[in-house]
Amino acid sequence: MVSLREILGDLARVFVTFVTWLYCLPLALFVVLWVLVGDRMWPLSVIGSFLPYLFAPVLLLLGMGLLTKAWHALRFSLPLALVALVAYGPLFIPHLPTAAAAESLRVVTLNVNQYNRDLSRVEDWLRQQHPDVAFLQEIPMGMLLPITYTLGEEYPYITAYQPQGQKFASVLLSRFPLVTDFEMEASTPVYSLLRYAIRWNGQLVALYGVDTAPPLGAVRFDLPLMNNRIGHYVMGYDPTNRDTALHNLLKAIQNEPLPMIVLGDFGLSDQSSLYGQYAAVLGDSYREAGYGLGSTWPLAVTDDLMGTLPAIFPALVRVDYIWHSAHFKAAQAAVGPALGSDHLPVVAQLGWVIAPDS
Length: 358
Description:
The chain is α+β, with helices and mostly antiparallel strands. It has two domains: about 5-90, no CATH class; about 105-350, 4-Layer Sandwich (Deoxyribonuclease I, Chain A), CATH 3.60.10.10. Helices cover about 35% and strands about 20% of the residues. The protein is built from eleven helices and twelve strands. The chain has helices at about 5-35, 40-50, 50-55, 55-70, 70-90, 120-130, 140-150, 230-235, 240-255, 275-280, 285-290; strands at about 105-110, 135-140, 155-160, 170-175, 180-185, 190-200, 205-210, 260-265, 285, 320-325, 330-335, 345-350. The strands form two sheets. The protein has a six-stranded mixed sheet. It has a six-stranded mixed sheet with strand order 5-6-7-8-10-9. Strand 6 and strand 7 form a beta hairpin.
């Protein structure tokens, strides 16, 4: 006679197998399409931006399959779990402590957000971090003079740029002399695509400041519950202008003769193919010395364009970067706290690996 325990066990295995198939089969199909097609189609590009999180339920299903001995379910969950382990497991291996080089730069990037009306937290955090160079994007024009005045004693070299037609500015704060600066030709709408040079310990170092316009166009479908940042991102995703500007920047970087640091809000997920093109020629400070996914966007703030998100909503996508040429190596890198923006700041300690000739 079959016991109640055996009946419940069979039902549990059937349930776990069904749920596993229901989730893992579409995910496996997406992974195949991602490998074959990549982010050349907008639905794949949008979903791929959140790809690490799509694997999280697989780990839960794997555990449920082992617990209930649903061996058929494991045929689907185990391969995908191995894919996740290979792709994202190394990101969660702590880096061995690395002493900062005797000559090193502490660098910060932060998209302040044009709707941020209280920059005191930004100022306090910058003083705590004590960076040598900070690139702040989308500072409301009404806040520009106050923040540059209060930080002017610590940063004697400050330059600001206001994108045409915008009510915010990008600001570079530096403890070292600024030698040159200019706006790069973007050919497409972009907030900031700037090149500076600083003289640091007798060496010229190029600084590229980036703040791309959001990869958004007309909303394709107006669906209920999508009047928020994620909804606009999904339904109005259009990376054409962003990608054109970033390809132009990449060409400039490849021809740059100086040691360089490239930092800012790229509006670009690290799951994208364009990220891979940057990683082929530059070092990613956070990947070298950070821990975890390093997600920086979107936090819950209210603005006039994209609505709001629940206050508990975490950053899901990594779009803010501190890149560097082979002359540098990151000894430390971290994502900072929420400072009233929809982005989190990124900080990195960069030391010389190959010092150029004076």
